[in-house]
Design goal:
By secondary structure, this protein is an alpha/beta fold. The chain is built from eight helices and seven strands, in the order H-E-E-H-H-E-H-H-E-H-E-H-H-E-E. A seven-stranded mixed β-sheet has the order 5-4-1-2-3-6-7, sandwiched between helices. Strand 1 and strand 2 form a beta hairpin. The longest helix is centred in the C-terminal third of the chain and has 25 residues.
Length: 334
């Protein structure tokens, strides 16, 4: 039986902790760009007063054969610092989408969801947190050049099908890397993923928690409080809070996948120092969500990384996609 989702509004006492991303694991090729981003925006999350519970919601896409990239999105926020968003979410569920319809990229052909997209994402824009995206090229194979886990970790991995294991390891290692730089000592962590092949039942969720704790141990230089892994299904109270946070990740993951595939198909993939327009054949929903990613006035931090996989970690090409808004603003849906 799942437990109802509860929000703690407790704050942590100031610790003087200096946020920095681990250089271990995937941090070997990601930490420099992420640490630079932290230094460039010192007055935003996570360099502020911190809440007792840090929430990370993960989503991933790219399963369609025609897509050139696997996409992963992580939404990280302190629950106690986002009471405004929680209030907006309650109003959204009461007045705009007053039923159990879940917002998702694939379901936006539904008229009610389509009309709800702009107010839903406007509320998301005010989140004090970090939306991080990775687009990983399907060419090049594994993100890990050697054994990613020890004997115990390898045994735990056997609970998942072989075609799921690489995706699972990517989600766990990228999550641990992000938490190494975005958490504070003593914080409790609630790690949430939608119910799918990674956490399809209680047995897999238990193994997932054990495996995640082992992965995190290799990235962290500070101690955390309680670490809990769960699925969006724990929100039994009907508030749909976790469902809606997961939907923000789902929507932006879907848009990034379509965007990157369009850039490759039209042979206009971004290059350093050059401004690249959006692909011409994007759907309305991806164009709108891309404008949300680019809007400079929003409070939520956004970071998009493109990874090209080479034959070794040192040959992994890392690019940060800088979003820019020209002419259009995030305003209306069709």
């Amino acid at each position: 039986m799942t437990t109802p989702f509860q929000v703690s509004f407790d704050l942590l006492p100031s610790s003087g902790h200096l946020s920095t991303f681990s250089p271990k694991g995937v941090g070997e090729f990601l930490s420099d760009s992420f640490n630079a981003d932290l230094l460039a925006k010192r007055l935003q999350f996570p360099i502020l007063t911190r809440g007792r519970t840090l929430l990370l919601v993960a989503d991933f896409g790219g399963h369609h054969q025609k897509q050139h990239f696997d996409t992963y999105t992580f939404l990280i926020l302190d629950l106690a610092k986002n009471q405004n968003w929680l209030a907006h979410q309650r109003r959204f569920r009461h007045s705009i989408l007053p039923n159990s319809r879940r917002m998702s990229f694939k379901a936006l052909n539904d008229g009610m969801r389509r009309q709800a997209l702009v107010p839903f994402m406007r509320a998301a824009a005010g989140i004090e947190g970090y939306l991080v995206q990775f687009a990983i090229s399907k060419k090049g194979g594994s993100l890990f050049t050697g054994p990613a886990e020890d004997e115990v970790g390898a045994e735990l991995l056997k609970g998942w099908k072989a075609n799921v294991q690489e995706r699972l390891l990517r989600v766990l290692h990228l999550s641990a890397f992000l938490l190494s730089g975005l958490s504070s000592p003593g914080q409790d962590v609630l790690w949430v993923i939608d119910e799918d092949a990674i956490a399809a039942n209680v047995s897999l969720l238990t193994s997932l928690t054990r495996l995640f704790q082992r992965v995190m141990a290799s990235y962290f230089s500070h101690s955390l409080g309680h670490i809990r892994c769960s699925t969006t299904g724990i929100a039994e109270d009907g508030s749909l809070v976790l469902e809606d946070l997961a939907a923000i990740a789902d929507l932006t993951t879907g848009a990034l996948g379509e965007l990157c595939t369009g850039l490759v198909n039209e042979k206009v993939f971004p290059r350093q120092g050059l401004l690249t327009p959006l692909p011409k054949q994007l759907t309305w929903k991806t164009s709108l969500l891309a404008s949300w990613m680019a809007a400079p006035e929003f409070a939520i931090r956004r970071h998009t990384t493109i990874l090209g996989l080479g034959p070794g970690e040192k040959n992994t090409l890392v690019s940060t996609l800088e979003w820019r808004m020209y002419e259009r603003t995030f305003a209306t849906s069709p």
